[in-house]
Design goal:
Keywords: FAD, Flavoprotein. Its cofactor is FAD. The chain has 482 residues and is an alpha/beta fold. The protein is 26% helix and 25% strand. It has 13 helices and 27 strands. It has a 5-stranded parallel sheet with strand order 3-2-1-7-19. It has a 5-stranded parallel sheet with strand order 9-16-10-11-12, with helices on one face. A 5-stranded antiparallel sheet has the order 21-22-25-24-23, with helices on both faces. Strand 24 and strand 25 form a beta hairpin. Helix 1 runs parallel beside helix 8 and helix 11 crosses helix 12. It is globular, with a radius of gyration of 23 Å. 46% of the residues are buried. It binds flavin-adenine dinucleotide (FAD). Flavin-adenine dinucleotide binds next to helix 1, strand 2, helix 2 and helix 8. The site of flavin-adenine dinucleotide has 34 residues, from helix 1, strand 2, helix 2 and helix 8.
Length: 482
């Protein structure tokens, strides 16, 4: 039987992961003939780490997910700089902007999302593209464009104080730029944080040299001059970086009658309304689950790889609750679950601790002994412990105060990683679970260096390296991965 022709449109984080997992299940290409079509001109890379490239602590090569030889070594037909422009579902053919059409037995849309620009005067050109003096941050080309303009002392405005806006502002601040972060809501990251945490985060930004303006909307952008706010104030800026959210990239799907601007609806097998077309990652819409995050994209890729190769015919996608992590310089924030509940909540037990002068804040919600939500700012150890309790469902210790203040020893991961469920995320920067590491250990024969190479775990902020070491080899205590 000839292999099934699978074409993946989009070589970003979801498409790259899917291709890897298909080849992991079908290394010789006997089951699946794989073609990946990617609009970008370089091998896939970890977008989550772009702020590190922006502030100069990481390089473009350092965040690459694949080397130049990856496709050849893995029997993948990879078309870089290739844009899919039309999907003929009746003929099961995808047309490219340049080059012959490609036939498929199964097509996977992994087209991601694109930055959304708000309707502020002067921000966009005629076709909706960023106007002169305006940038967005989605890819390495954006980083290069922003870096070319922003040096020490250069005034920069960042519009949008969500997670990406705060990370971007802090990264530009570390480049030495004079950054003003403008956010229309009363406090930063209002979808994740309560007002106290938002206030402390703004203080931390201020300490890091970023000026924060909240509660005011930008009303007009003037190229080379800056941004006018609704109260008439003017923020000088040689560059305005817009981080006001993303929208699923669905043009190809919509033109083919699949999905809408909100995303491409898929079932738990990641199938669209057309059984020959699937969607994964930011462009896919799975029920009410939040999109625009890496973990769901990679979980979906794993399920689809099982289904496309037949390795796991019963695999189904179930959304897992997201954990938001922001680590930029001295700012360390973890948020998840029912973080919006106040101390007076009747829905759950809520505990809080705030030390604004020292930039620390911890709020914890519990249902019985289960951790159901948290906001942790400036206390990385507490954030890690609570996340682990949340991910594993392990009962919280009875001494809640000690837990909140970080005086409880972390759950036994460092001593006994075998106890952790496989789905526990060990490396948040690269979204690597214990299962990923265990699989890689089996494939590579173990050893921390091999594991890091195989999974890229610990190549982001590096916080998880001790855990990766323990999982790589319970006896290994030294050795620097390269
Ligand atoms: C700066 C930054 C920081 C982030 N931080 C976090 C974080 O901390 N945690 C988190 O969970 N998520 C984070 N994200 C979001 C995360 O990167 C995305 O959820 C993830 O990249 C989704 O993967 P994807 O493959 O669906 O989309 P993408 O990675 O965007 O890949 C889509 C690819 O498809 C290509 N493409 C689109 N249309 C076509 C076409 N017609 N033909 C060919 N190719 C096409 C695009 O060029 C792109 O290369 C961050 C994103 C950014 C930009």
């Amino acid at each position: 039987m000839s292999p099934r022709r699978v074409v993946v449109v989009g070589y970003g984080m979801a498409g790259a992961r899917l291709a890897e997992l298909v080849r992991e299940r079908d290394p010789r290409g006997e089951l699946v003939e794989l073609t990946v079509v990617g609009a970008e001109s370089r091998p896939a890379y970890n977008r989550v780490l772009l702020p590190g490239v922006l502030d100069g602590t990481m390089t473009a090569d350092g965040i690459a997910l694949h080397g130049r030889e990856w496709a050849r070594d893995n029997r993948v037909r990879l078309l870089l700089g290739a844009v899919a422009v039309r999907l003929d579902r009746a003929a099961r053919v995808v047309h490219l902007a340049d080059g012959p059409p490609i036939g498929y037995d199964a097509l996977v849309l992994a087209t991601g999302s694109r930055p959304w620009l708000p309707p502020v005067g002067g921000l966009t050109g005629e076709r909706g593209e960023p106007a002169r003096g305006v940038a967005t941050l989605r890819g390495l080309d954006d980083c290069a464009r922003i870096a070319a303009v922003t040096g020490p002392g250069v005034p920069v405005a960042v519009l949008g104080g969500g997670v990406l806006g705060v990370e971007t502002a802090l990264a530009l601040g570390r480049r030495g730029a004079g950054v003003t972060l403008i956010h229309p809501a009363p406090h930063l990251m209002e979808r994740h944080l309560d007002p106290t945490a938002g206030m402390i985060l703004a203080r931390l930004c201020h300490t890091a040299g970023v000026r924060v303006v909240t509660g005011l909307t930008a009303v007009r952008h003037y190229p080379d001059e800056g941004v006018k706010l609704e109260d008439g104030a003017f923020v000088p800026a040689a560059l305005t970086v817009v981080t006001t959210g993303v929208r699923p990239e669905t043009d190809l799907a919509v033109a083919a009658g699949l999905g809408s601007a909100e995303g491409v609806p898929v079932d738990d097998r990641l199938r669209t309304a057309d059984p020959y077309v699937h969607a994964v990652g930011d462009c896919a819409r799975t029920g009410d689950a939040p999109s625009g995050l890496l973990r769901p994209a990679w979980d979906q890729a794993a399920v689809l790889a099982d289904l496309l190769t037949g390795a796991g015919p019963t695999a189904r996608y179930r959304a897992s609750p997201p954990v938001t992590r922001l680590r930029a310089g001295d700012v360390d924030l973890t948020v998840f679950g029912a973080s919006h509940l106040g101390l007076d909540s009747r829905e759950a037990e809520v505990l809080g601790y705030a030390d604004p002068a020292r930039g620390t804040y911890a709020k914890l919600t519990l249902d019985g002994d289960r951790v159901t939500g948290a906001i942790v700012l400036g206390l990385p150890g507490v954030g890690a412990t609570l996340t682990q309790l949340y991910d594993t469902g392990w009962p919280a210790p009875a001494d809640r105060l000690a837990l909140l203040l970080g005086r409880t020893p972390p759950p036994a991961v460092d001593d006994d990683p075998a106890r952790l469920p496989g789905s526990t995320v060990i490396c948040r920067c690269n979204s690597v679970t214990k299962d990923d590491l265990t699989r890689a250990a089996r494939a590579t024969g173990g050893g921390v260096t091999a594991l890091v190479r195989a999974t890229r775990a610990s190549t982001g902020c590096g916080d998880c390296l001790p855990k990766v070491r323990r999982l790589a080899d319970p006896h290994e205590t030294t050795g620097t991965p390269t």
